[in-house]
């Protein structure tokens, strides 16, 4: 017979149980959810503006993917924190080819970095933007790893002080010197660059030691 909803009903004579067969399309809906999540398609463009789609995938938002445990050490890894919203930051570790791990936190604190590192084998070198808490986290978990400042962030830091169009000779030369970091490829290049920086400090020693008074009569460099 059939149920009140019109579905086919079956009866087992051996166990005397009545049942209905349903089609489980959870896997199909999940794959559709993933395909949409990693595509450029918007729900607005779907039939009915995506109302049926949202109902079908509602439960999948509760699934929190856990990063795998990485037991093979890498030579170099890159770490960074990306703020998705206020007090919502995701820490990411990347080896240049694959994402090794991630950790969701409120801010880039030492404990958050430690939680990320604990599931990843200690690398030889860690490249970062010099964010807060990372150095302390390294001392706790990746004790033998060497910390390297990201060149891009180092150059950006210089540009914050010199601006994109510096007006002083010292600022112009420092901006050019920072930009030349991209051309440092060997140890010999590094030695030459460090010597240029030292010469810049000697050349503008008097200028760098000058002080001015702000509106509150405080001395500032």
Automatic annotation (TrEMBL):
Alphabetical keyword list: DNA recombination, DNA-binding, Transposition
Signal peptide: none
Family annotation (InterPro entries): IS1249_transpos (IPR048004), Transposase_mutator (IPR001207)
Family per record: Belongs to the transposase mutator family.
One Pfam family recorded for the sequence: Transposase_mut
Protein's recorded name: IS1249 family transposase
GO terms, biological process: DNA transposition
Source superkingdom: Bacteria
UniProt entry tagged with the keyword Hydrolase: no
Function (record text): Required for the transposition of the insertion element.
Molecular function via GO: DNA binding; transposase activity
């Amino acid at each position: 017979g059939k149920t009140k909803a019109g579905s086919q009903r079956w009866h087992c004579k051996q166990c005397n149980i009545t049942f209905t067969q349903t089609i489980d399309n959870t896997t199909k809906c999940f794959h559709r959810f993933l395909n949409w999540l990693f595509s450029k398609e918007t729900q607005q463009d779907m039939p009915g503006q995506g109302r049926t789609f949202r109902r079908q995938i509602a439960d999948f938002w509760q699934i929190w993917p856990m990063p795998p445990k990485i037991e093979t050490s890498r030579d170099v890894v890159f770490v960074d924190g990306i703020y998705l919203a206020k007090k919502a930051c995701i820490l990411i570790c990347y080896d240049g080819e694959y994402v090794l791990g991630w950790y969701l936190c409120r801010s880039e604190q030492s404990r958050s970095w430690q939680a990320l590192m604990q599931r990843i084998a200690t690398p030889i070198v860690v490249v970062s933007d010099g964010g807060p808490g990372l150095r302390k986290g390294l001392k706790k978990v990746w004790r033998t790893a060497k910390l390297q400042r990201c060149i891009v962030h180092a150059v950006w830091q210089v540009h914050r002080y010199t601006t994109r169009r510096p007006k002083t000779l010292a600022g112009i030369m420092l901006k050019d010197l920072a930009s030349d970091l991209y051309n440092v490829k060997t140890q010999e290049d590094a030695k030459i660059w460090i010597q240029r920086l030292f010469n810049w400090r000697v050349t503008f020693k008097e200028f760098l030691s000058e002080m001015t008074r702000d509106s509150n009569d405080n001395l500032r460099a």
